[in-house]
Amino acid sequence: RDEAVLPAVGRDAVLSRWSPRLIAARAVHALHPLIRVAAALAHDVERELAAALAYWCTAHMQVPAPRIARRDLPLETAAAPLFAAERVHADGGATPLQAAGVGNRLLELAARPGFADFSGWRPAQLDLAHMAREAARGYLGTGDFFALHMVTGSHALRGVLPWVADVEAALDRWWQALAATYVVIGAPDYAGWQDVREPARVPDDAAMRRTSMDALAGDDPEHVVKLLWSAREEHAAHGFDEHARIAARVCASGRA
Q1: Of 80, 95, 111, 137, which is most buried with the most CB atoms under 10 A?
Q2: Which pLDDT score, from 0 to 100, does residue 134 have?
Q3: Both ends of the chain: CA-CA distance in Å?
Q4: Cα–Cα distance measured from residue 110 to residue 107, given in angstroms and rounded to the nearest whole number
Q5: Model pTM above 0.90
Q6: Distance (Å, rounded) from C-alpha 19 to C-alpha 21?
Q7: Which residue stretches of the chain are H helix?
Q8: Rg over CA atoms, the chain
């Protein structure tokens, strides 16, 4: 970590050089390094950006590049069949992982011969917005803590993409990250997202501030605040009901 590099070289040069490499190398720790970089960028805190990039550099692990075998599926439904096929893949959800901890489970999964195959299925038309929507559906349908990071991570990647020259390559790697995370959390059936009853309306700013402040007295304020922020920003960017419902759920429950 060298905080002098950013002011000397410039934020844009540093991010343009390192973001593509780091995205390709895959972050561990539940995607936290990517999320932390995006938060530093959104709030324009140079020291935090330096720390976040250092964290990402030291936490990444190299995994096999996806073998691109794109599946031609309608955009609105593309991600759901991919996850469903991954659920029954012999090297995916059909064979439970044995390792303990997210990083170790990722290493175990990456060593499976079929990992490079199903992590290369992203259709060319499956953009970040629709991957983010499917991540939101996964969280709504399971409430899984690590599925939460698929939501906040998708938001974070959107904040970093302006410094990535080859966006398609970054999106291929993001599908790989989502595909891996999905297996790591047990490849759950999340069809229950269709039965959620939360209103498809983002709570007002006062309600979200109140929920965030109340969370400070709880045992996990960080994830409450991050999930609310991501849900609000993703809804503003894409207009999907799923993100509004996540925000409504968090405000109603006070929990992520």
Answers
A1: 137
A2: 97
A3: 31
A4: 5
A5: yes
A6: 5
A7: 5-9, 11-25, 32-43, 46-59, 79-87, 102-110, 115-118, 128-142, 145-160, 167-184, 205-215, 221-238, 241-253
A8: 18
